[in-house]
Specification:
Elements lengths: L4 H32 L1 H57 L5 H16 L8 E6 L11 E2 L10 H9 L5 E8 L5 E13 L3 E10 L1 H51 L14 H57 L6 H32 L7 E4 H11 L1 H7 L3 E4 L5 E4 L1 H18 L5 E7 L3 E8 L33 H11 L3 E7 L3 E9 L14 E2 L13 E2 L5 E2 L2 E3 L29
Helix pairs in contact: 2-3, 2-5, 5-6, 6-7, 7-11, 8-10, 10-11
């Protein structure tokens, strides 16, 4: 059974689709190369400009040559037509027989004679009655090949209006082989005795001129292509001299950025590129020297912090023993002395906490911090941290809410993660302004997260990038209620990094703040995305989240949305008040 037309078109369509796909891939490749390669762009633009100039100059020269050939051919045709017309007129004037048969034969002989002088057989001649001649006379006479030529009406009309002058026009001749060639037609008036006015048209085909123009065109095309290629080669060599040092500088700068501070550019010659390489090397040497100085200063500061922290432990232990003895005997002292002993004991507690934090920071700076991973229920750990802060929360009028729909167990260092959550929850309670604090536990395939959300004063624009700085406080005039050292969030950030996780912060004035800890669910498996909320979904307008930039443990910042519209509960004692259920969490009314 013969295949249908659709089946026959199938391979052709597949071939066309493959060709289109290949063209698209090639265009995409050229686009990528154009964007990434300065070398390619310079060569392309240079060749494009060269091609434009070659086309413009070639077109002007070609048109000039063509116009010159047409003018030359027209002038010679007019001179030949003038001479041949005079010969034909003389032949008619010299005849003594004026019968139509004799005149017709004479017309044929004259047309044949002037159409093929010497070896020129391309000239065409047409003799026909003039447009203003109504007398009966001889029929139209033409040479072979000119039978289909019809003189244009404007030329015939011009001869009627001005029979004393020649009328010239460029026409197109159609060859039998299907090709066209321009020709010069020159019309003149002759008077035949006993027959009246007749028009004599001489047609001069420009075959040789067309061949000459074809040779010129091909020469221009070959010369232009060669010139464009030569321009491209020159551009390639020129840009190579410039781009190669620039690429070398880029590679050296990349290696410098990677930490290879000894990398330098090779200096050759004394030109501008050599001076650029010398300046680049001088800049690299200066940066290396300054970085070395900063590293030495950093090591000195770290060593100073470590040494001071260790040296303070011995006298602090002695002071602690004495302070404990005084504090235990405060009942035997006067009221103001007993109060002083209590203040002394409290401040010593803060001093010991600060010293412990300084020692922990020094271990992070020295790279001596290690993890001790054990499987831990993150939900249970968050519940324990909430229980630790219940008394403080009740004292400040803050309700603690745990939102953990499912339990999740992950291998973590319990002591370090617990310290992170303690810092986040205590900070949320301190800055919550009597509004609820919500602890949200979420998990996905690659990560677990704990978000601590408060609805207090929030963070101003730019403060989310500073909250993890050491000893930074949003309001230095604000008194601490939890006795923090100013290093809690810095240590929490380092603990998160140690777990290959990250700690982020978001805040906006009047909207509160949210801190999110994200840890890998399986050690060594990269975190694809954080499952927990950070930015409230209700804050979507750009003007409302202008200050909502998030500080991450890797030093970057990003925006994350998707805070849930409802808050679940883990314990009945931590449930939200009835007036807050079904809402994101609203600030209590001032009259409550």
């Amino acid at each position: 059974m013969p295949p249908s037309s659709l089946e026959r078109r199938g391979p052709a369509r597949r071939a066309l689709s493959a060709a289109v796909a290949g063209a698209r891939r090639f265009a995409a490749f050229l686009g990528r190369t154009w964007r990434r390669s300065l070398h390619f762009r310079v060569i392309s633009l240079t060749m494009l400009m060269g091609l434009t100039v070659v086309l413009a100059v070639g077109a002007l020269m070609y048109q000039g040559i063509a116009d010159g050939l047409v003018r030359s051919k027209t002038s010679s045709a007019q001179q030949v037509a003038l001479r041949e017309t005079a010969d034909v007129q003389n032949a008619f004037d010299a005849t003594d027989k004026t019968d139509l048969t004799t005149l017709y034969n004479l017309s044929r002989d004259s047309v044949r004679r002037i159409s093929s002088p010497l070896d020129d057989t391309s000239r065409l001649v047409v003799l026909m009655r003039a447009g203003d001649n109504a007398r009966p006379g001889i029929p139209r006479v033409s040479t072979a090949g000119a039978g289909e030529i019809t003189p244009p009406a404007d030329v015939r009309g011009a001869l009627v209006r001005d029979p004393a002058h020649q009328q010239t026009k460029i026409i197109t001749l159609h060859h039998a082989d299907g090709g066209d060639v321009p020709a010069v037609m020159v019309g003149s008036r002759v008077n035949i005795p006993n027959a009246g006015a007749y028009d004599l048209y001489l047609v001069f085909p420009m075959d040789k001129e067309a061949q000459s123009l074809g040779i010129v065109r091909n020469s221009f095309a070959a010369g232009g292509l060669g010139l464009v290629l030569l321009i491209g080669a020159c551009a390639y060599l020129a840009t190579r001299l410039v781009v190669t040092p620039v690429r070398s500088a880029a590679h050296v700068s990349e290696r410098l950025a990677a930490g290879n501070l000894d990398e330098r550019m090779r200096v050759r010659g004394e030109d501008d590129i050599a001076r650029l390489a010398t300046s680049f090397n001088a800049m690299a040497s200066s940066l290396q020297r300054q970085i070395g100085q900063l590293e030495d200063l950093s090591h000195l500061q770290q060593r100073f912090t470590s040494d001071v922290s260790h040296e303070l432990r011995t006298p602090l232990t002695t002071i602690r023993m004495a302070a404990d003895m005084i504090h235990d005997s405060r009942g035997d002292f006067a009221a103001h002395v007993a109060r002083s002993s209590e203040l002394l004991s409290k401040e010593l507690d803060r001093f010991e906490a600060l010293l412990a934090d300084l020692l922990e920071i020094s271990r992070f700076d020295a790279g001596g911090a290690v993890l001790s991973r054990t499987p831990v229920s993150l939900t249970a750990l968050a519940a324990d941290v909430i229980d630790m802060h219940e008394q403080l929360a009740q004292k400040l009028g803050v309700k603690l809410v745990l939102d953990a729909p499912t339990d999740v167990e992950v291998p973590i260092d319990r002591r370090r993660v617990e310290r992170i959550l303690r810092n986040l929850v205590s900070n949320a309670i301190e800055h919550g302004q009597n509004a609820p604090v919500v602890v949200i536990v979420r998990s996905n395939v690659t990560a677990v997260s704990v978000s601590v959300r408060d609805y207090g004063i929030g963070l101003k624009e730019g403060e989310a990038d500073k909250v993890f700085d050491r000893f930074w406080r949003a309001d230095p005039a604000r008194a601490r209620t939890t006795g923090g050292t100013g290093l809690g969030l810095s240590i929490s950030l380092e603990d998160a990094r140690l777990h290959d996780g990250f700690l982020e912060a978001w805040g906006a004035p009047g909207e509160g703040s949210c801190f999110r800890l994200t840890l890998p669910r399986h050690p060594g498996v990269p975190i694809a995305s954080s499952p927990g909320p950070l930015q409230p979904s209700s804050v979507t307008a750009p003007k409302q989240i202008a200050s909502g930039t998030m500080r991450t443990s890797d030093g970057g910042a990003r925006l994350v949305s998707g805070y849930p519209s409802t808050v679940g509960t883990k314990k009945a004692t931590n449930a939200l008040p009835p007036t807050l259920e079904g809402e994101a969490v609203a600030r209590p009314r001032s009259d409550e």
